[in-house]
Design goal:
By secondary structure, the chain is an alpha+beta fold. The chain has helices at 16-26, 43-54; strands spanning 5-9, 33-38, 57-62, 69-74. The chain has a 4-stranded mixed β-sheet with strand order 1-2-4-3, with helices on one face. The chain is globular, with a radius of gyration of 11 Å.
């Protein structure tokens, strides 16, 4: 899937991945997609909760090799 911007939060622990994602999404236009790459396993549940609470769309979540988590989030 295509995305409009990317955020690398590898190596950061909770709550920093969520805080940086929130800031990045705030600077984007409605409907744009942000790709987030993280390494903290807690981001899986954190981003699900973040999407529910903020109304942004969590379009996908994947776990590529090397214990990285990739999320695609559409700004609402």
């Amino acid at each position: 899937m295509d995305y409009d911007d990317e955020l690398d939060v590898r190596g950061l622990k909770c709550p920093l991945p969520i805080l940086r994602t929130k800031k990045a999404l705030a600077g984007m236009d409605t409907g744009k997609v942000l790709r987030v790459v993280a390494t903290d396993p807690s981001t899986v549940k954190d981003f699900e909760a973040f999407a529910r609470q903020t109304g942004h769309d969590l379009l996908s979540r994947s776990e590529p090799p090397a214990d990285e988590f990739v999320f695609l989030i559409r700004r609402k």
